Amino acid sequence: MLITQIKPEEEILPKISLKRLFIIECPGCEEVYFPAEDVERFINRLKEEIIGRVSLDYLCNREFVKEYLRYYSKKIEEAEAVLVFSCGVGVQIVSSLLEDKPVYTACDTLYLKGFQGLRVQDFDCDQCGECYLNYTGGICPLTNCPKGLLNGACGGAKDGKCEVDPEADCAWILIYERLKKSGKLGILKKVLSPRNYQKIITESLSREEVKR
Amino acid sequence: MGEVNLVDYTKFRLKPAEEIREVFKGVGKIFILYCRKCYKKFEEDRVEEFDELLDILGEDSQKIVGSLGVDFLCNDFLSKKKISSLDLSICDSVGVISCGLGVQFVAQTLEGELVYTLADSLPQSGNSTSEVGYHGISLEKEKCCGCSQCYLNLTGGICPLINCPKGLLNGPCGGAKNGKCEVNPDLDCAWEKIYERVKKQGRKLILESPQIRDYSKPPLKLQKDLSLQNQTFRDESFYGGFHPLEKKEETEEKRVESFPEPKIVTIFLSQHTGKKAKPLVKPGDKIRVGQKIGEADGFISSPVHSSISGKVISLKEEIHPLSLKKDLAVTVENDGENKFDSSIKPGKDFENLPKDGLLKMIREKGIVGLGGAMFPTYVKLSPPKPIDTLIINGCECEPYLNSDNRMMIEHPKEIFTGISIVEKILGVKKIFIGVEDNKLEALTILKSSPHKSSSVEVASLKTKYPQGAEKMLIKRITGREVPEKGLPLDVGVIVLNVATVFAIYEAIMKGIPLIQRVVTVSGDGAIKPGNYLMKMGTPFKEIVEYSFGNKGEELFKEYELKMGGPLMGTSQLSLNSGIIKGTTGLTLLRKFPVEASEERECIRCGRCVEVCPMELYPLYYAFYGKRGEWEKGIEYQVENCIECGCCEFICSSKISLLGFIKKEKEYAHNSNKA
User: Fold this and answer.
1) What span, in angstroms and rounded, lies between the C-alpha atoms of A170 and A154?
2) Nearest CA distance, B355 vs chain A (angstrom)
């Protein structure tokens, strides 16, 4: 799941054609986050130029969007551009289905820890493809250490806090403490091999193949 | 519609065999937890990775002393409960098959235990520059890496970060051959696609200034704040539930008015849980307001009274607005004289009446729970177990509805007197009135009312659906959890709706049986929305004509008429039914303009699990329901479902979960009997 934020008006307004807009909002990730008030404010600024506005859920579902667009096709034809309020996935789907119509987004998309699964969490998984958790007491050094160090602390931590983000705990100190608790400090003697970035490409491509 | 291609976004796979054998060398006795996966087509209820593990281990699999498959292992709230109920004392380590989230969660929960991961996460980005790519809720191939500086306005809606392996932001690298990428010849060059797309749109590729990705975005602080905000918002008061659009503004400030005198009324003999009342009248009889027309039949039953005076014109079956099945009803023609029955006499001071006398009156006056469930109140007030707490439910968490809200605003004195009557019957020490914090006026009035006794506490609750469900309310106010298949009285609590308390007041103090109630009429296209005092049996036809315009049955083409609110209400099939004791509102909803042409397949997105306030796993009800395996519902505790509709509302595949749930509940009910 992804979270959206409204782009600053000065960034978006000059870049898009502002005549005869058709607006699509996606509150699909209900309960996750949809900046409804900001959207309202933004749309109010454009009021004069809006020829249609609909709220349709799950814009990330191509089949749904196809039906939505078919239903609203007349209105969309009249529009000069379509402005979408959704995460990057929704915008990409809408614009791939309306190839000859400029489709703009008013949102920036960001990701919160834990949304790889179900809920916002204090920890995250970065899909590295070579899980290190057996050597780190179940605390991920890639997502918890801003530097993503695999073989111990950088030495920059002060009072257990990270030098990049002083509000965050140093991941490697947490790892040390966790291993100490289970009496497995010896694990730290193992040198982890450098991260294999190739995996990101090969494994995710094989996923696409599985599908087709 | 053709076969829909869904990408399998399984998040993990088993680690290579050598690595697993290596881990098992250092293991004595191990317990295996495995995640049942998310974001893939839900085709079979089996996790092959566990079987694969056994194959790899061969003899070593004897080291496995137990295993448990958990749905959505990363759901910390539910999984923690499951994990802490396990007896792990016999094993020296725990192995986890899941993505990194599940493993980290288990390691955190079982701190001090040895937790091994037996799986690697599966990368999704397909791109070396942005390490991650996130899919949406649906399983399409489009992805987003959450860069928080969206470039799609410049690139015609094709993301260069995800689609170009080099993640170039300012045009192609020049290495493409015949439109194919030089990094991976299977891929189209993203920048060529961007060029074509923008050209089709009749635009020029605007590159007036070079784009540089800002890697400090999104700021850590912002991410943290949003995470915290999301976590607190989601977990307010109780697990699950959601925040629907309230849409209460329309009738929030409308005073309760009397609805115009109905020409006829259709009064059902079954307006309560339990056995239908026995009719006491026949066609042709002249009857008066408040006259008993149906006698309670058995302990769990309730009498029914006439709401108008006039002539009984028929005693025949009509469509019941709740069960939607044919049920016996008395139809009375109004003579407009409003002559009261001789049985209606103002009561004596309730203080001087014995407890039994009060209970008898509540039964005789046909009082039932007005929140919608219509359980006979006198049965509820004769609990077989000790009760120490009474909760008055004024949450009204359903969107659109305001009938309880208006009662609290306009009749605090009557409500507090009603509470005193119940207090006397039950002899309870602690009384709470639970009101959601979106009803500020009601909260202020109740808190400052001179009629409030010191034993009553007004509790302001966070607004979240379904806060008004008994079990949520009890948990939130007393911290007690009603056991599975249990009743509130199992934890010493009785919950009554505010409207029920008002009806008790009317019955005891004025001698008026339950012949009228406040109903909120509102919704899309309402001409005269409002909160109306309606006589039982007022036909929907008359209400629709009055409040929604003269549309007749045509109405059903464009709208859905629900008795109750949009979430728990019953969709009406005809306008011939009438108001019953459990009618909290009549809501007109414009049908969603685009009907999903077919039901989509479950993709295990887990959203239903995330919103279920009863902590169930609704996806299985649809999965087994579609196969007709109704008995499986029992295994997944379908009997605990309160039919709040959260799962159906949120379902990303628009599956009618409640339909399956109702059938499975019926099956469970029947098999319990047998």
Assistant:
1) 9
2) 47
C-beta separation of B645 from B659 below 8 A: no
Q: Does B48 touch chain A (CB under 8 A)?
A: no
Distance CA B190, CA B270 (A): 66
In whole angstroms, give the CA distance from residue B432 to residue B645.
Answer: 26
DSSP sequence for B266-281? EEES--SSSBPPEE--
Instruction: Give residue B89's identity as a one-letter amino acid code.
Output: S
Q: Count of CB contacts below 8 A, A vs B? A: 323
Cβ atoms B613, B240 nearer than 8 A: yes
* Sequence-ordered list of residues with C-beta below 8 angstroms from that of B602, at least 6 positions apart, any chain: B41, B42, B619, B622, B623, B653, B655
User: A126, exposed or middle or buried, with CB in 10 Å at 0-12, 13-18, 19+?
Assistant: middle
- pLDDT tens-place string over residues A121-134: 888 888 888 899 99
| DSSP conformation class of B238 | S
DSSP per-residue codes, B454-519: TTEEEEEE---BTTTSHHHHHHHHH---PPTT--GGGGTEEEEEHHHHHHHHIIIII---S-EEEE
pLDDT the model gives residue A211: 42
**Predicted TM-score (pTM) of this structure:** 0.90
Residue in chain A closest to B649 (alpha carbons) equals: A30
The pLDDT assigned to B346 comes to 86
ipTM of the modeled complex: 0.88
Q: What is the pLDDT of residue B667?
A: 94
d(CA A108, CA A86): 9
Nearest residue of chain B to residue A91 (CA atoms): B157
Distance separating alpha carbons of residues A123 and A125, to the nearest angstrom:
7
On the 0-12 / 13-18 / 19+ scale of CB atoms within 10 A, A199 is middle
Smallest CA-to-CA distance from B517 within B376, B392, B367 is with B367
Lookup result for tokens 């009274």: B305
Average pLDDT across chain B, whole number: 91
Question: CB A117 to CB B242 under 8 A?
Answer: no
Give A35-72 pLDDT, tens digit per residue. Answer: 888 888 888 888 888 999 998 888 998 888 998 899 99
